[in-house]
Amino acid sequence: MTSAPAFPSPELPGYTHVYSGKVRDLYAPLDRVSGQVRADQLLLVASDRLSAYDFVLTTPIPDKGAVLTQLSLWWFERLEDLVPNHVVSSEVPAQVAGRAVLVRRLDMLPVECVARAYLTGGGLAEYQADGHVSGVRLPPGLVDGSRLPEPVFTPSTKAPLGEHDHPMPYAAVEREIGPDLAARVRDLTTRILARGNDIAAERGVLIADTKVEFGLEGGEVVLADEVLTPDSSRFWPAESWEPGHPQPSYDKQYVRDWLTSPSSGWDRASGEEPPALPDEVVERTRAKYVQAYERITGRRFG
To answer: 26 and 145 share a domain?
Structure first.
């Protein structure tokens, strides 16, 4: 499986590079007087890398990092009455302007907090097997694209880079972080998705599911990383929603579909890295990310 991405991280004056994940690079700011690394903040840089099926693809998607950053900032403002977020400032070095934020350093929770408002993807496969998703029993008769009675919390493990996340029963979350904290993040995750759908529906977008991450600062739960973006969520055009089959989307599902189509020539079960994306797939993927941003925010990108 894949390891750390083979993309160079930019040198940023006043910062030291500390880590690169699948799609983000982390830097620590240096104290202006002592030159020592500050322990209270991080610079979170969203790259144009794209991950799919636990691989970091060799082909970047232009402007993807900027779309994710700007859309997250837009959502953070609309969620701040529900939960505080980690943003300190969007004033960042010129080399990463528009796709980076200075954030508070948190003690991150070791759980991927996922909520579903519609049934599809891995949740659908679980449901078809035994009527449950992450241990949550769902009503009978649901199909691909069915709306759930209310958003459900379906957490997963937070696997190391290159390994699969796995569905995690709620009882396992309680064992991992304690019952009080588990209940808090469950409530916040489903409320974030519900709030997101209330807002996005007015703009003709359905948010099928989403993944959010939380950290702790002084015992307080803080929303971190990104929120309600095409990388962390499934966005569907409301006008074409029709349960019973896969839905068109404004997210990286288009890339997933191409990778598993005969056109790519790639066998997902082979263990081999996926092929480079052709120009047409890159251009259409970029267009979907930009369309998601513009349709949800009502702002022009760029």
So the answer is: no
